[in-house]
Amino acid sequence: MNAIPPPPAWTAGSVRALMDLPFSELVFQAASIHRAHHDPTRVQISTLLSIKTGGCPEDCAYCPQSASYEAGVPASKLMDVDAVLAEARAARAAGASRFCMGAAWRSPKDRDLDAVCAMVEGVRALGLETCVTLGMLTAPQAGRLRNAGLDYYNHNLDTSPEHYGAIITTRSYQDRLDTLGHVRDAGINICCGGIVGMGEDASDRAGLIAALASLPKAPESVPINALVRVEGTPLAQSEPIDAIDFVRVVAAARITMPASYVRLSAGREAMSDEAQALCFLAGANSIFYGPRLLTTVNPAAERDRVLLDRLGMTAG
Ligand code: SAM
Ligand code: DTB
Ligand code: SF4
């Protein structure tokens, strides 16, 4: 009996070879795979809300919410459930299909999870998909979120295993993989991606994509963030990533994770419409919609409506 061969295991080397293809070849391959798995004229839209802002004990060098840096983001308490639901209703009215709630925690306390579970139940009752990002989770915490009806958990690998130590010292790559394992075991969809423009080289970008594509099951949603450089954080003066190199990362994510939603995530405010159009061509099919990310600026809804209109794309 002939066994079906396993799919290719992506390595940093094989992803790097993809990313180094002539640009037109790479984008053609990505666009071909994209249309075999998705409608290339549709873009999924998610709206973000920071439900607990600032004062975070972690030292992620990109993040304005870390208590280690002076980035002008004061710490605030967890929002009330009703206030969160009011924001979710507004996001639904603006056309979002998913509502993503982020908290500046290393990991949630069990008591905090009571309120977050109530938020998840309330947002779901509005007919929106739910996503939360709360830091590291234990297996029982993931189970509680699943029981509350959570659709997606966002937890990023952020960068390659090799570059990781230059960015975060307060938790390890393995800690992140452990949390992703608990989320997967609980039966929650995974949203997992990373950030580019943090002083990494092309091999690190390939290493990030290979690490994502090599998870036991590819994440259902893959956010590709371009670093938002915030004054006061250690990475504020980083060299911005070249737009063509950014598109190469998106294309590599699309080719290696064909069925996933690839989200053109943070960093769009500083991106030209033409660069975003190339990202959609290369397989990006999701964006954050609405004027704010967590603490930083995202394109105004009107700019996005005009852009999607010019490109003949529909949001949903
Ligand atoms: N505290 C939780 C955690 O880190 O897991 C959840 C919230 S945290 C802000 C969510 C993600 O936002 C981070 O993993 C990182 O990838 C992204 N992020 C934070 N600051 C960013 C920045 N300045 N530019 C781009 N992405 C950023
Ligand atoms: C993700 O990958 N990007 C989003 C979401 N997951 C939570 C967060 C972007 C944050 C950008 C910086 C800020 O607004 O604070
Ligand atoms: Fe804290 Fe998350 Fe920011 Fe890291 S990325 S400092 S864990 S809020």
Describe the structure.
This protein has 316 residues and is α/β, with parallel strands linked by helices. The protein is built from 11 helices and 10 strands. Strands 1, 2, 3, 4, 5, 6, 7, 8, 9 and 10 form a 10-stranded parallel beta sheet that branches. α9 links the parallel β7 and β8 (261-264). α9 packs parallel to α10 (273-281). Bound molecules: S-adenosylmethionine (SAM), 6-(5-methyl-2-OXO-imidazolidin-4-yl)-hexanoic acid (DTB) and iron/sulfur cluster (SF4). Residues 56, 62-63, 65, 102, 104-105, 133, 135, 155-156, 158, 195, 225, 227-228, 230, 266, 294 line the site of S-adenosylmethionine.
Average per-residue pLDDT, rounded, comes to: 96
Shape: globular
Largest sheet: 10 strands, parallel
Span between termini = 44 Å
* Share of β-strand residues: 5-15%
